[in-house]
Specification:
Distance between the termini: 23 Å
Number of helices: 7
Largest sheet: 4 strands, mixed
Shape: elongated
Order of helices and strands: EEHEEHEEHHHHH
Strand content: 25-35%
Radius of gyration: 19 Å
Structural class: alpha+beta
Length: 168
């Protein structure tokens, strides 16, 4: 199912929702379509709506300030664009730079996306002990970065310029 980015009335990213939820928000006049999939429309007897990629809420919603995106395995894969931090191939697993058995935790700075082969080869060791080099260092994404990244890598080029200017 397609994901749709939800912006607050002030144009700050809030969340991603399913296509169905996005259409319901637009139909109830709680949101407006800011960017749609080109050439795709949802049609019914009395409805003709563009398929939304980005919607903006009509009214401002106050949300508690969140300095950091919550950690998740899916979030790590999305942050690293599903690319292995050791070889660059397609990543399907998450690897702990400092293994959990050595005191490493589930944090943004201690986890990277990894292919199954490299994850198995590194095993219960640090990259230095395993003789492996990280191609890129892990980082902590902001909540806005995480939301825009969740839409997909190829989507960024298709987003409007004002939204594409958000940090990757």
């Amino acid at each position: 199912m397609r994901e749709t980015l939800v912006l607050n009335a002030s144009f700050e990213p809030l969340a991603t929702v399913s296509l169905r939820r996005a259409v319901v928000l637009v139909m109830q006049d709680k949101a407006v379509v800011e960017h749609a999939h080109p050439g795709l429309r949802i049609r019914a007897a009395s409805v003709d709506v563009p398929v939304p990629r980005v919607i903006r809420l009509s009214r401002y919603v106050r949300v508690p300030f969140r300095r950091q995106a919550p950690w998740s395995r899916r979030g790590v894969l999305v942050r690293d664009q599903h690319r292995c931090a050791y070889c660059g191939k397609r990543a399907t697993t998450v690897d702990h730079v400092v293994p959990r058995s050595h005191g490493g935790g589930d944090t943004w700075l201690n986890t990277v996306a990894s292919c199954a082969e490299d994850n198995h080869r590194k095993a219960d060791r640090t990259p230095e002990q395993a003789g492996m080099r990280l191609l890129r260092r892990p980082f902590v994404p902001t909540p806005a970065d995480a939301l825009v990244s969740a839409l997909g890598v190829s989507v960024r080029e298709e987003l409007p310029d004002w939204l594409g200017a958000l940090p990757a």
